[in-house]
Request: fold
Amino acid sequence: MGPQMADTEEKARTIRLERLRTMVEKHLDLAPAALETLLSELRIGEAQSDLWERLHAAAARDDQELELAEAYRKATVDRRLKQLPPAAAADLLMHAADFSQGVIGDGDGAEIYLRAVLQIIPNHAEAFARLERRFDAAGDKRQLVELYASVVATPPRRPDEMANRIVNEIAQLTAKSRLSDDACKRLMALVPVSLPMLGVLEAHCLKTGRPRLACELLEEAIEKHGLTETRIIDQRRRLIDLYLGEAAQPEKSITHIEILLLRDPNDARTRDAGRHLLSNREVATRAAEALQTARRKSQLPGAS
Reply:
């Protein structure tokens, strides 16, 4: 871009801003155009925070609330947001939330905008804090935990601090307050900083009729989350019980039975589980081999 063109564009920008200042000071009759001017400023990294506030005040003063609300709706569709740098898109959505909540009193609309901010910048502290306050005030524990789950990959505060709060909230959820499967899976990322997280997630899945999801989470904990050997043994035992019981997937218990019998061939509880699988066509052969190996090892000199 040559110097002359740059100078021309700067002059045009100055004219647009002066026109906007005049509108917000005297009479706002072109709310969409005013919003577009401020969008142009966001694109070049100019926040113009004062002008956004004055635009909102002018819309309320001149009966332009509906027009500006519609302009925000059109400006924040996915296609248009993707044309903005992430920080600018988040700023636009925060202004939209301010307008929805503060001017037209639409808390639900503001929530939609704040959630969209977190989709773009998951660790956006202000958007997170405002949603947290909203769900806290409403006593909506399920929504609160879903919020925490949505930002767990890049938490806006210390993971252990968040984990303690989440564990307490999940423990109070009723069977009707069902967390999404996705939220439960995301929250597993906090198990390394909060072992109780695994227990409350398992209990919640069982309480809400999802034993197979509980098994999936326990399998993940064994594979990925650095549990101690003692904890892993406990989780394998728990998985065997669930697969043979509530989850109704007996064949999936065989790997855990094999591992536990190799570790302790005299483990009566695991032997019983292995015998249960002798009638299961899918894994009967593996169960028989595991039991036979355990019997041989248990008869060796020095075997416990």
